[in-house]
Write a structure and sequence with these properties.
This protein is α+β, with helices and mostly antiparallel strands. The chain has helices at about 30-35, 90, 155-160, 170-180, 190-195, 200-210, 220-225, 240-255, 265, 270-290, 295-305, 325-335, 385, 395-405, 425-435, and strands at about 25, 40, 45-50, 55-60, 70-75, 85, 95-100, 105-115, 115-120, 125, 140-145, 145-150, 165. Strand 4 (about 55-60) and strand 5 (about 70-75) form a beta hairpin.
Length: about 450
């Protein structure tokens, strides 16, 4: 039997099975494989779509001992140069983890591993607990003690861990399409507010009575008038990200009077085109001031909005779409975390937190009809035995009801006003009775 020197494994896009690649693979018994150097070592992980790829790979360094280093390559960053990462191979080649934040664990991507602390990037759609300092989508430094992997087939460990709450990967993909039109998709930022707050008046006019706004104040209106055919939609977004556009929509929806009832008038139309222009102007005003040659700075901002549409945020040709590394890593992590197949064993029978307590906001991720719902080899376990709560389980919902009930004011008996009984009062009472009997 012949085996390849290099073994490349490609997962089919429609393959829903769980694939967990170990760092070292022995085709035969471990001791025998080591004796004959019959060992496969994972040297690279590649995430790709039809146009673009990123990879983390291991290679020998130009040092006397020829030590192995790990590099991360993304052609859209660092001028296309691979960047070396520090940490152990076992942790760098993988990188999908769960990280403790208070009482709960949230998904993240491991970026750099140190001796005591690690750099991670939180999943951008995490929903932290009230009072948490976690910033979804941002890089954070955390203790190595607070990091766990997917705890594959480890029932006891899973039962001790309470999950936080987050938007699952398959839902995030669906929501991305709605970011352009759903004004509640992302809350606006302080930067967006600073850019648009001074312009509430003109933006309100553009929604209610666009003819009252001079073309010189709104280049998008002038552009619209110059079109050979009447067009309501103005889809220019050059220089802005999808999140920028979603936050602008949310600001308009929240701040402009009456906008929440008139979404059909302004979403993707003239008012939003001008709002996007104003955000670009706010960000790059100093740059536009130096470029003024017979055009106002607001016209230059709108020209960029038009010219850079379909390009990267810095105006370069977008020859390929960027791979969402965080999303890819989360998808792989969740296949293990929520897997309910026979391969997952008892640990796959919704064991997370059963000895610790409810998940954040009493979240039940298995009710969201995720990819695991399509499992063809679902394990049939004994729920009455396997899914029992441990003695230290904290039921947040039950505790909330108890606290609510205990904080309610207790009913007090009606106070009866006491009367002194003396000879005068007794005479009056007898007189009333006598009159009633007559």
């Amino acid at each position: 039997m012949g085996l390849p020197v290099f073994w490349c494994v490609k997962i089919h896009p429609e393959d829903n099975q769980l694939w967990d690649f170990p760092r070292i693979l022995y085709p035969v018994a471990g001791d025998e494989a080591k004796k004959h150097q019959f060992v496969y070592e994972l040297t690279a992980e590649v995430f790709s779509n039809q146009n673009h790829f990123v990879t983390r790979f291991a290679t020998s360094l130009d040092t006397p001992k020829r030590a192995t280093g790990v590099f991360f390559y993304d052609g859209m960053q660092h001028g296309g140069q691979a960047q070396r990462e520090s940490g152990k191979l076992d942790h760098l080649l993988g990188g999908r983890v769960l990280v403790r934040d208070g009482l709960f664990f949230f998904p993240a991507r491991l970026i750099q591993k140190g001796h005591k602390f690690c750099s991670i990037r939180w999943w951008r759609h995490n929903i932290p607990a009230s009072g948490s300092s976690q910033q979804p989508g941002k890089i954070a430094k955390v203790s190595i003690e607070d990091i766990k992997d997917e705890l594959w087939q480890n029932r006891a460990a899973r039962r001790r861990i309470r999950l936080g709450k987050w938007v699952r990967a398959f839902i995030a993909e669906e929501q991305a399409e709605a970011a352009w039109e759903d004004p509640k998709f992302l809350p606006f930022s302080s930067e967006i507010d600073r850019a648009l707050q001074p312009n509430i008046g003109i933006l309100t006019q553009l929604m209610n009575n666009p003819d009252s706004v001079m073309d010189s104040l709104c280049p998008a209106k002038k552009w619209q008038a110059g079109m050979k055919r009447t067009t309501k939609a103005i889809e220019h977004s050059g220089g802005l990200t999808v999140d920028d556009c979603a936050r602008i929509n949310n600001w308009f929806y929240t701040v402009i009077p009456g906008a929440s009832q008139k979404q059909h008038i302004w979403i993707g139309a003239l008012p939003i085109a001008h709002a996007r222009t104003l955000v670009l102007l706010h960000r790059h005003q100093s740059e536009f001031i130096h470029e003024v040659e017979g055009a106002s700075i607001v016209e230059l901002a709108f020209n960029r909005l038009v010219a850079w549409t379909g390009k990267t945020v810095d105006g370069k040709d977008k020859l390929y779409e960027r791979v969402d590394v965080d999303l890819e890593a989360l998808q792989l992590l969740k296949k293990s975390v929520f897997d309910i197949s026979e391969d997952a064993g008892v640990a796959g029978n919704q064991q997370w937190g059963l000895d610790a307590g409810s998940h954040l906001q009493n979240w039940n991720p298995w009710l969201e009809y995720g990819p695991e719902s399509h499992c063809t080899n679902k394990r049939e376990g004994d729920d009455e035995v396997e899914c029992q709560h441990g003695p230290d389980f904290i039921d947040d919902q039950k505790q909330h009801l108890l606290n609510t009930f205990s904080n309610q004011p207790k009913a007090r008996p009606n106070q009866v006003k006491k009367r002194w009984i003396n000879d005068d009062n007794l005479a009056k009472e007898n007189s009333k009775k006598q009159k009633m009997n007559v």
